[in-house]
Amino acid sequence: MSNTITDKTLKDLEFDAVLDRVSQYSQTDLGKKAVLKIVPIQNKELLLDQIYQTNEYLSSFINENRIPNHHFEEITKEIHLLGIEDSYLEANAFQKITAISQTVREILLFFKKFKEYYPTLFNASDQIEYLKIIDDSINKVINRFGEVTDNASSELKAIRKEINTLRGQIGASFTKALNHYAAHDFLDDIRESVVDNQRVLAVLSMYRKKVKGSLLGNSKTGSIVYIAPEATLKINQKLQDLIYEEQQEIIRILKILTHEIRPYINLLIQYQEYLTHLDVVAAKTKYAQQINGLLPKISKEKKIVLRDAYHPILLENNLKKGIKTIPQTLELNQQQQIIVISGPNAGGKSITLKTIGLLQVMIQSAILIPVHERSEVHFFDTILTDIGDNQSIENQLSTYSYRLKNMRNFLRKCNKNTLFLIDEFGTGSDPELGGALAEIFLEEFYSKNAFGIITTHYSNLKVLANELENVTNANMQFDERTLEPLFKLFIGQAGSSFTFEVAQKNGIPFNIINRAKKKVERGKIRLDKTISKLQKERNKLQRTSEGLEKEQNKAKQQTSNLSEKELKIQEKLERFQELYDNNQKMLYIGRKINEMSNLYFQTNNKKKLLADFMKWTLIEKNKYAKLHKTEKKTKSQKKQQKIDTAKVEKKIEEVKKEVLIEVKKIRTQKNVIKKQVSKAKTDYLFKVNDRVRLPEGKTVGTIDKIEKNIATINYGLFTAKTNTNKIELVESAKK
Length: 735
Description:
This protein is α/β, with parallel strands linked by helices. It has helices spanning 7-12, 15-23, 29-36, 44-59, 76-82, 91-113, 119-125, 132-141, 154-183, 230-261, 265-291, 312-321, 349-363, 399-413, 431-447, 459-467, 499-505, 510-519, 522-603, 606-627, 635-683, and strands spanning 187-195, 198-204, 213-218, 224-229, 297-298, 304-309, 328-332, 338-342, 376-377, 382-386, 418-422, 451-455, 471-479, 484-491, 691-693, 701-707, 710-714, 719-723, 728-731.
């Protein structure tokens, strides 16, 4: 996409402030510099790739597969030296190159392992070629402390061995001289010191001529002189020669190593650029985490749907101050192509305008934005802005002249894939003439099918917005009672400027306000008054609507709760009804059987009992048949039913056999228990106050006295005597 988002637009929207905040999350200096150079991306495929990389990196914060650390030391100077023929790198420079190579290797392996989680980041890493030869070549020569190893060459190994031998000799000869002169009391209490990295004897000044060696210095007071022993000096001279040879051999080795690494200079450049890019992505992600930024839906259709959109800079500033930030919600589409926002000053019109523009520039720079997840964005080729009181002092242009020049650019660049944002549209000149020209500009933008948002106080623009089909009025809500801004955008109605009301609130006397009203045309006052009145009515309706909505939600919740309770009660009633029906049926059966059995006990007529029972059974069977009518079945169905019935009967027989076995076991157990109980009763010795009854009776009495196995039982109204063998215990007397 051909991008014409100018530096002026980025400056108007304070995009540099966002970049400054993002840069603070970079781990490297190169990353910080790269962040500060971010501009909206022109190529749509590249833009989508960058956005998805940032979004994938953000997802790593909430899953277990955290992306490895990408921190690195800059090697720009080392890369520059590699490009110069016959130059060589120091040992610590190779250590930095190894560190970068190892970091790249670790990240490439990570993205290869988790490419399903991070497909876009993997694709970016897959373009990088890791060569093990760089690390291998350096590790043969440089150790992990950034020093050339002894095994880098046989010459270096031999030189260092000899150096170590000489250092040992120097130590021995110095110790010998130290002990000798100490024995003669020529030395100070400190005995020795170090001068120019060389051990020296601390000799008392009075004995300096008695100590053989080279004088290298003295103390501040002059009481001590520092002398290097003669024997040590001779060996030390050899040592210095060997150290020089060692340094020359190291330089030779480093030159060879530099020559080996030089062919991979482009790969090292790629490594550093990749890690810098990853640092930029990580910084964007950490900033998104701070402002609750996310990736909204990217719409192929030309429309913007921003829900709960926050201005990121305002959001962070308010968070520090502990102030709540009011989000904005609006939509631009083919049916709502341009929005004209009106209302009083300091009501939030400009910040709303900047919020939309800044979020659009951020998403087109692959920076995630603080909006609701159901928001939608579209990429525009051109974003044009005219925000703030711009004066061109350099070209000696007034505000209005500057704005006219800006409008000329707008008319030239504006097309169907343009988003324009104009603050205080038409101001800077005579209200009537400037307003008329602003109308024409608005009609031109409208005819070019551009999307846009403008803020204005001009009544004619509010009227025009109402007349054009796809242009909508909007206003920043204002509390008419306190005359305080609510910072909420309301789409669908123009807003009053509340000019005189705000003046009144700020202490302007009534007589001055009334005189000002008389100076203004009656028509304009009436229009502004009407708009103000409509806005007040709309605010009342909105508050009422919000109250009704809350009550409706509350009623819905209560209805839902009642419905749940009603269902539970209904289920319980159905269960109780079923239980009641079953109980009634059992009572009916019990009564019927009881009637027939009583009749049988009286008449002892077995035939009549069987006849009555069969008659009652047939009546019940007919009732059941009527309630459970069965459809006529075909021969095959009947046959299948017989088979099924046979299977069921077989299964029942099997169950019966199993049940009979269990019943026999239970009967046996019961008999045993019965015998135990009977024995316990037989062995029981009755005593006074035991509650007892006759085996065939139901009446319970209390034993008053026992004489020779004859118990006198008190039944309350009367007493009776019987043998203790003929009574059974109901309850033992309480002790």
